[in-house]
Amino acid sequence: MKSKCQICNSEYTRSGMSRHIKNCLGKHFKTSGNGTAKRVFYLHIHATYNQDYFLHILMKENARLEDLDTFLRNIWLECCGHLSAFTYDGYGEDINIKSTISKIFEPGLSLSYMYDFGDTTELTIKNVEIYKGVTEGNKKIQIVSRNADPAVICDECGKKPATVICTECQYEDAGWLCKKCAQNHECDEDMFLPVVNSPRAGACGYTGD
Ligand SMILES: [Zn+2]
Ligand SMILES: [Zn+2]
Ligand SMILES: [Zn+2]
Ligand SMILES: [Zn+2]
Questions:
Q1: What's the 93 CA to ligand 3 centre distance in angstroms?
Q2: In which domain of life is the source organism classified (predicted)?
Q3: Which ligand is nearest to the CA of 193?
Q4: Which are the contacts of 8, defined by CB distance < 8 A and separation ≥ 6?
Q5: Which ligand approaches the C-alpha of residue 190 most closely?
Q6: Residue ranges per domain, the chain?
Q7: Residue 135 Cα, ligand 2 centroid: separation in angstroms?
Q8: Ligand 4 centre and the CA of 172: distance in Å?
Q9: What φ, ψ does residue 17 adopt, rounded to 5°?
Q10: Contact criterion met (CB below 8 Å) for 102 and 41
Q11: Which CA distances in Å does 163 have to 1, 39, 50, 68, 160?
């Protein structure tokens, strides 16, 4: 399953992508020193317990954590307006989301992010590097790469890609079902959620819409 680098359009697997993006950004940007030039922060975001769901983004230095929160909700998470939080170690005090990212991140630093404190989706956000430069169109956030659909295989037949998740069965490693197996599945259809390209697939009422 290969994903695309949106800067140069080449395709890589997950680990190849992390290596490639450092090289690719290194060609387009200079590493930032202490000068006054505008900076962009390269962040690698992934689902804490499943690295197949990843995002590589560039963020303007004066953007805030709340901008990142909104971005993550829109692309991966939002179902019913749950609370979210950024922390340094997963359980410490919340970081103020009004903070500008340049005050929080430094290369090598990782934050934890949680969306929904009931059926939680947890992400790890790492600042890989800081470059001199501006994002495309001077946007607050520019996506460099997003994982291609991981195409999870049906838990029942072990052959076809899953299209729905039975929320009754998913905690017993049996809930991801292909179309055919879903039709013969014993649980109520009301318990089904669609398979979507997000680490929140199968959580709460998440449908990706
Ligand atoms: Zn590239
Ligand atoms: Zn929800
Ligand atoms: Zn099946
Ligand atoms: Zn079921």
A1: 43
A2: Bacteria
A3: 4
A4: 24
A5: 4
A6: 3-146, 151-209
A7: 32
A8: 9
A9: -65, -45
A10: yes
A11: 17, 41, 19, 29, 9
Q: How far, in Å, is the centroid of ligand 2 from the Cα of 74? A: 13
| Integer CA distances (angstroms), 46 to 56, 92, 112, 133, 167, in order | 9, 20, 10, 24, 23
CATH code, 3-146: 3.10.290.30
Q: From the CA of 147, how far away is ligand 1's center (Å)?
A: 14
Q: What separation in Å is there between the alpha carbon of 54 and the centre of ligand 3?
A: 26
Q: Ligand 3: distance of its center to the CA of 162 in Å?
A: 7
Task: List the pLDDT tens digit at each of the 209 positions of the chain.
Answer: 899 999 999 999 999 999 999 999 999 988 877 667 899 999 999 999 999 999 999 999 999 999 999 999 999 999 999 999 999 977 789 999 999 999 999 999 999 999 999 999 999 999 999 999 999 999 999 999 999 998 899 999 999 999 999 999 998 888 999 999 999 999 999 999 999 999 999 999 999 98
